[in-house]
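Slack export, channel: ligand-projects

TW: morning all. Re-posting the request from yesterday since it got buried. We need the structure predicted with the small molecule present, not the apo form. The ligand is zinc ion; the SMILES is in the block with the sequence. No rush, but it would help planning for next week.
GE: picking it up
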Amino acid sequence: MCCGGSKHLESNNHSFQETAPWAQGERWEKEERDRGFLVTSGNIFIRWFLGLLCRTEGSKDTKKRYLEKVLHAVFFFGQIHVLPIEPEEFIAEEHQQRLKSQYPAPFEQCRSHLPTKTLCSIALDYVTETFSPTLQRMDQYLEECNRDLWQHVQEMQLKASEFAFCAAVVARSVYKDPRSKAGLQPFYGASLSCKGWAQRRIMIDVSCLETWHPAVAYAVYHGGTGKAIIFPDGVWSKAMRFDHQFLQYQEKPPCRKCRQMFQKVNFRPCPRGHRQEKWQYGNCAETEAFSKLLQGNRAASEGIRSSANENIEAFANVTEPAFRARVIEELRRRNFEVANLQFFEPV
Ligand SMILES: [Zn+2]
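GE: finished. pasting the full token output, ligand included:
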């Protein structure tokens, strides 16, 4: 896990200043190694996504929009690494000029704009936008896509722990109206696919500000303190973890934190009888899946309420400045100076 930019190390990590010179050397060696893994990971993800675009039916404009988002997100994570990475480093030399002239925006805006999603979530959006298969076929297709990505990772001889853009879990949520039985459109979400505590912190805050439904941002803001959101009857959720050894999905029960934050949900597999998993911060795919459900299904969003009887929409006035200030501060520590947050949106 990365430990912060040079400013961050100077201002916040006394132990670094006080450690022996050889320990500092080891720290920078580790950063150099992580940097190398990030360059390879970005290169793998871009090549894999280009392959996915070739195999799928989306329109030319849709493909361009998603490719720009992928390029921008990879370049952005390069910019905020302790040892910054220039966009060109992620791309083989023979393709650099073509990509730069065809897609200039990601190259220019990776220094000023933030992505609103991590890489696997962008790819998941593309797959769900360009496909409308049945529930089962979609699960199968996602598994095939993931398997293909992992074959790329293995070819480049990276371990799972070294690949920087891994989304370990995907979740599917569905609202089934208890009276009309209508609904059943599945909404998919992925766990955050970026490595490093600061990167995750930034992307969770950005998601709360810009991407996730206000009710999900409310639950995440209060995560662990008792305040939660209560869903109406009829919400179902299933999560699947990708097994890197067997290259397939395995169902997983929700973690304790998700059960506390998202109440009255029918989780599958049922958490009872399973060992309670520890919460890896920001690593829950349920968050994105529930957010999409609430953004896409009016009956579900109208039935949502706070366990503390607070007005969730009004609460955004409290949380927004807090998230915004924290992102700007975290970026500043990474030498990514912005006075106001701007988000990348391909035209
Ligand atoms: Zn969870």
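GE: first-pass observations. The longest helix spans residues 21-55. The pocket of zinc ion is lined by residues 254-255, 257-258, 284, 286 (CB under 6 Å).
TW: perfect, thank you
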